[in-house]
Automatic annotation (TrEMBL):
This is ComF family protein. It comes from Paenibacillus monticola. Coiled coil: none annotated. SUPFAM superfamilies: PRTase-like. Gene3D superfamilies: 3.40.50.2020.
Amino acid sequence: MNTKSIWLKGLQSLLTSSVPQCLICGKHRQASSQLPSICVNCAAAIPWIVSPRCLKCGRHVGCPDCNRGGETSPIICNRSAVAYNSVMREMLGQYKYRGNERYSALLGLMLDRAYLILKEEREKEQRVQRSSPHSTISSFFQNKRAASGILWQADLLVPVPVSDSQLEERGFNQAERLADVVSQRRGIPQLPLLVRKHHTGKQSFKGRAERLADMKHAFAASPAMIELFPNWLGAMKPMDRPLQIIIIDDIYTTGSTLRACAEVIQQMTEAYRYDVEIYSLTWARS
Ligand SMILES: [Zn+2]
Ligand SMILES: [Zn+2]
C-alpha cells in the first residue's frame, strides 16, 4: 500500500466513524432527525399511519371487522404508529424474537408519535364539542375542561402482559419497554395492572373465532396491584372527567387481546367507582 492509499483509507475510516451506523441496514449513512438510531433511507421506508381510514381501530385500509358491528368494545379507539408490512415484520422480528433490545428505543419513539396523533385528535374533538350548540350532558364535563384550556393527556399507561413462559424465553416484555419510552417522554405513569393467566399460543396460526374464545379468560388483575392500584387512584387529584387509560401493545391484529385487557381494566376501575375511558396504542396495525 502506498502513502496515498493509506491516507485515503484513513480518511475513509474517519468519515464512516463520524457517520453513525444504522440499526436497521447497518450502513453508515446520515441519521434520521426524528429517529436518530436509523438512517434517512430506512426512515423513509416506514409506512406511518398518519390519518387512519378506520377511526375505531386505527387501520390504514378499509376495515371489515369494525363495520361488521355487533361486537361491543370497551375501547374507545385504537391508534397505531405504522402499517405492518414486510419491512416492519422484519423489524419486529429483530426486536421481539431475536431479542435485540436496541430496538425498544426506536419502536418506542415510533409509538410516541402515535400517542401524539391520538392526543391531537382528542383535543380537536374537544374543540368541536365546545363549539357545538347541541351539547349533551355527557359532553358537559369535556366542554368544561376544554373551556378551561386543559389539553388532553392520558392518566395511565398499561402494557399488555406476557405470560411467565414468554417472559422467560424473551427476557423482557416488549409492550412494557415500548410503554416506558412514552411514559418517560410524556410524563405519564405506567402500571402493570394485568397478568396473563395462560399462554395462548402463537396467535398468527389461529382463526378469528378461535382467537376470540382463547382471549376471553387470558387476562386478570395482577395480584401485585391489589393494593397498589387503589393507592394510586387515591393519590390522584380530583377530576371532573373519567380516568383516561391507554393500553399499550406491539401489534394490533384482531384487537381481541386489547379488548380482553380492557374488560379487566374496566372491572378494576369500576370496583373503585371510577369512570374510565380506555384507549389503545400499538406500534403496528396489521
Ligand atoms: Zn438504514
Ligand atoms: Zn376498524
